[in-house]
Write a structure and sequence with these properties.
The complex is a heterodimer of chains A (492) and B (197).
Chain A (H helix, E strand, L loop, with lengths): L2 H17 L4 E4 L2 E3 L7 E2 H13 L3 E2 L2 H10 L10 H11 L3 E11 L5 E10 L4 E11 L15 H12 L19 E7 L2 E2 L4 E8 L2 H4 L5 E6 L2 E4 L1 E2 L6 E6 L5 E10 L5 E11 L6 E6 L1 E3 L2 E4 L3 E7 L5 E9 L5 E7 L7 E3 L12 E11 L4 E10 L5 E9 L2 E10 L3 E9 L5 E7 L4 E5 L11 E8 L4 E6 L3 H5 L6 E3 L8
Parallel strand pairs in A: 1-4, 1-5, 2-5, 9-16, 19-25
Antiparallel strand pairs in A: 2-3, 5-6, 6-7, 8-10, 10-14, 11-12, 11-15, 13-14, 15-16, 17-20, 18-19, 20-23, 21-22, 21-24, 24-25, 26-27, 27-30, 28-29, 28-31, 31-32, 32-33
Chain B lengths: L2 H17 L5 E4 L10 E4 L3 E2 L6 H17 L2 E2 L2 H10 L10 H11 L3 E13 L6 E12 L5 E10 L15 H18 L8
Parallel strand pairs in B: 2-4, 2-5, 3-5
Antiparallel strand pairs in B: 1-7, 5-6, 6-7
Helix pairs in contact in B: 2-5
Chain lengths: 492, 197
Amino acid sequence: MSRLSLSLCFLALLLSAASSRAATVAVLPLQDVTVSRNGVNYTLTGYVRRELGTRGFTLVAEPRIMEFLVRHRIRTLGRLGSHLVEAAGRELQADLLLQGTVCQLQERPAPAVSLSLELIRTSDAATVWANTDALSASDLTSLLGLNDPGNLGDLYAVFFPRLLATIPAEVPPAPEAGTLLDIDSVILLPRHVRPGNEVSCRVRIRDMEQRITELPQLVARVGKREYPLSPDPDGYYLVARWPAADTPGEYTVSLAGRWASGRTEHAVIGSYVVDDHAPEVQLHLVGREIDGKVFFSDRLIIIPTLGDPEPVRRWEVLVIDADDEVIVRQGAAQRLPRRLTWRGQTTLGTLAPDGEYTVVFRVWDRTGLSSSASSDVSFRRTPPDISIDLVQEGRRLTVKLARNSGMPLAYWWMKVFAPDGALLRLAEGQQLPAHFSLEPAGKPEAAPLESLLVAADILGNRIRKKIKDLRRISIQDEAGEMELEKEWLEEF
Amino acid sequence: MNRLGRLGAMIIILLLAGCGRQVPALYRFADLPVRGTCRVALLPLVDKGGYPGGAEILSRVLLSELVTSGHFQVLREGDVLELYRQLLLYPNRQPNQEQLRIIGGRLGVGLFIGGDILEMREVKSTPAPETGLTMILRIYDGSSGRLLWTTYHRRRGSRYQKVLHFGRINTITGLARRMTREVVRLWRDEGMQPCTR
């Protein structure tokens, strides 16, 4: 054999040895969800590294991996994105990247471990192998209990070879991939727009500054219309702006890239809604309805609803008095409230006088279009005004009751007590005027007749009058003789 | 048979029918696309099970089973989460159809797989832990975001016990692995096409 032939054979051997070299694997520290989402388990990472080493893989040194993690500020392991995987391939000169998650790890009561591993080809960030395995000491319990595992160390001896048993010795190379639109971020604003208003789309392509000359011709496509993207003054984004269409509806925006070779690539990047009508708001007031008019004394429930429900940007409720003065103004920039309660107080905290009011509810949708609804309400907080008149004929006393003003009554009752405290007469009813009679024993000018009058109108306004001497009402004005009770007294 | 007896028999039949429901159960809302079903993206699972790290565990198990059993191209979870961040989505919330369409368009996804963990538990007991998992996995169209299939699965670890303690699944990860394998097998039997190698 000639010298040249020998050299060729030697070269061929060298080439074959080089082509079958062990793949270089970067083993990332394992994420440990038994600790937290950001937990790391170095112990089990060490076991995985040792097991991979026995299978002929070349491992990237741990300090280099740590430097990579620090450099890229990777805080959560187990879920690296494509760009970080590809960066790991470049910076660590690794063919493959192994990341994994410790799913379970417990020493007691029965030792158990479970681990999920994923082998990723760094050239295209594709997962080429993945396995999840779990092992509990209970799985290895034998009938006679001989050599049963007693701790996690015993389990590891079985677990790791089993977990990595199917890992491929060789990984096929990544298929040839065409240049892709590598979108880093998209800002499409506004999300809801009125017809004719401007829509802007800002797109950033990953590593745009370095690839600016290689980028395809980019256009934002809405329906059949196309809007070319051009760099903004800072050169950070590619920007396109266009007026929103006149027809309401949802419009999908896609990014189209036309490469010099003629190839075109599309990607949906977002959508916006053209809205040309204000939300239809309806107002429902819950109070006491009399002859089609709403009355309340204590609280008014205000329920706003939308005819065609949609998210709102903000809302406002106003209460306007008879002089067109706004006495209550309240609102919020959030969803429509299910119900509001007005207790008759102004925004300043004082109680509004009895009278007629208008409640106005206004709402703005996401495009800023607004609509309002209003409803009248009558606020009546004054208790019923009841006059008492007494007519005396010999021993017989006739008490006459009348309603001077206020809302219709719900009920009234009056008790007249004898001087010894015994109940002489109880009269009651639902309407006034009314009268009733009684005949107290003894002389008319004898001891006073104490009385109690209670009445409530249909709104719940209640009056309670204690009369020290019923007889004296007929002789002199009731001033000083009647007092409006404020404390609860035994009525029965 | 008197009326009470007939009522009792009916209750027993209903109970037996309830116990015997076939799981995993697949509900079809639309057919899978003819092409492009092998490139899938896993959406973060909505965890209602209360097991610590339950969503991460089931997600990793599902990824393993899809890669191993079906030769599916599973996109990087980090890429999906990056788009969640851009679209201001919480990882524990299911994106709506429009958001799925955007994610699908950006990543070139054939199918999305997401779902809910309804129950996930591992109770320490003697002689072995009691494990249980109930989940719903959903398949969405990658280009339209439309819901295509829903699969319900529920099992206890003791369900797989054969003789004595043999066959029993003693870890929640083991149970998740077994159940997802059954679900993936069902999907493939029902026409979900794997990648051609």
